[in-house]
């Protein structure tokens, strides 16, 4: 049985790429384009890990993570940020990796 990952991000292209990459290595991937939609999915699906965009317009990643911690404290949460929001030195270093 594969692990189920919930990806929450307001960028549809980011979600599509994550889904493609993660499914190619065997994960079951659920997608949500906002924090509230992600929280709805968490109520009806068994999720092993959440991958969460930190900057979203409707509900921030911090707000989503706080709600998840209060209601599903055992679920690991990984927060991400777009490379464009990192300082230039970090972006260059990540590009080289």
What is the helix content?
A: 40-55%
Low-confidence stretches: 89-97
Q: What is the mean predicted local confidence, pLDDT?
A: 84
Rounded to an integer in angstroms, the radius of gyration calculated over CA atoms is 14 Å
Find the count of extended strands (DSSP E, 2+ residues): 4
CATH third-tier fold name = Rossmann fold
Output the helix-strand order.
EHEHEHEH
Q: From the 3D coordinates, which CATH architecture would you assign?
A: 3-Layer(aba) Sandwich
Going by helix content, strand content and strand pairing, the class is: alpha/beta
Q: Regarding CATH, which class? A: Alpha Beta
Q: What is the total domain count?
A: 1
> Based on the structure, what is the oligomeric state of the protein chains?
single chain
Task: Note the overall shape.
Answer: globular
Query: What distance lies between the first and last C-alpha atoms, to the nearest angstrom?
Result: 31 Å
What can be said about the biggest beta sheet? 4 strands, parallel
Question: Percent of residues in beta strands?
Answer: 15-25%
- Number of contiguous helices: 4
CATH superfamily: Response regulator
Widest sheet, order of strands:
2-1-3-4
Short description:
With 97 residues, the chain is an alpha/beta fold.
Q: Could you explain the architecture of this structure?
A:
The protein is globular and about 30 Å long. With 97 residues, it is an alpha/beta fold. Helix 2 (35-44) runs parallel beside helix 3. A four-stranded parallel β-sheet has the order 2-1-3-4, sandwiched between helices. Helix 3 links the parallel strand 3 (49-53) and strand 4. Helix content is 44%, strand content 20%. It has a single domain (4-96), classed as Rossmann fold, CATH 3.40.50.2300. The chain is built from four helices and four strands, in the order βαβαβαβα. The model is unreliable at 89-97 (pLDDT under 50).
């Amino acid at each position: 049985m594969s692990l189920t990952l919930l990806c929450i991000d307001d960028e549809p292209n980011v979600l599509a790429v994550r889904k493609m990459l993660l499914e190619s290595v065997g994960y079951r991937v659920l997608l949500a384009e906002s924090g509230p939609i992600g929280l709805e999915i968490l109520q009806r699906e068994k999720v092993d890990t959440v991958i969460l965009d930190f900057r979203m317009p409707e509900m921030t990643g911090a707000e989503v993570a706080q709600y998840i911690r209060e209601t599903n404290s055992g679920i690991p949460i990984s927060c991400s940020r777009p490379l464009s929001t990192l300082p230039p030195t970090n972006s260059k270093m990540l590009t080289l990796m």
